[in-house]
């Protein structure tokens, strides 16, 4: 009888440990999913901000071009502007 009781106790302890392990892993997976979701949202927000920045820059360039009476050239083409 004692042997049976000890085996039953070990079985219960093992099952409890397996449940704790499963819960721990589930919590870890859930946290990982939330982290990936947050990273994805931040990446989308960064992309939206970059797009808005490009649009604002383009609008400024267009406004400057209208004031100057034509398209203002920047960068490598700037030296060719006065040829």
Summarize this structure as a short list of keywords or feature phrases.
single chain; 83 residues; mainly alpha; 1 helix; 81% helix; 0% strand; rod-shaped
Write a structural description.
- This protein has 83 residues and is mainly alpha-helical.
- Helix content is 81%, strand content 0%.
- The chain has one helix spanning 2-68.
- The relative contact order is 0.05.
- The model has no long low-confidence stretch (mean pLDDT 87).
Number of helices in the DSSP assignment: 1
What spatial form do the alpha-carbon principal axes imply?
rod-shaped
Helix-strand sequence: H
Radius of gyration: 32 Å
Contiguous low-pLDDT stretches (5 residues minimum) are none
Overall mean pLDDT score? 87
Number of strands: 0
Question: What fraction of residues sit in β-strands?
Answer: under 5%
Helix content: over 70%
What does the secondary structure layout of this molecule look like, with pairings?
Layout: H1 2-68
Concise synopsis of the structure shown:
With about 80 residues, the protein is mostly helical.
């Amino acid at each position: 009888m004692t042997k049976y009781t000890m085996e039953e106790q070990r079985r219960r302890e093992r099952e409890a440990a397996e449940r704790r392990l499963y819960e721990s892993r589930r919590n870890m997976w859930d946290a990982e999913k939330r982290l990936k979701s947050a990273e994805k949202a931040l990446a989308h927000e960064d992309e939206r901000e970059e797009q808005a920045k490009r649009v604002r820059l383009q609008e400024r360039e267009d406004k400057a071009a209208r004031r100057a009476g034509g398209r203002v050239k920047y960068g490598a083409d700037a030296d060719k502007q006065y040829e």
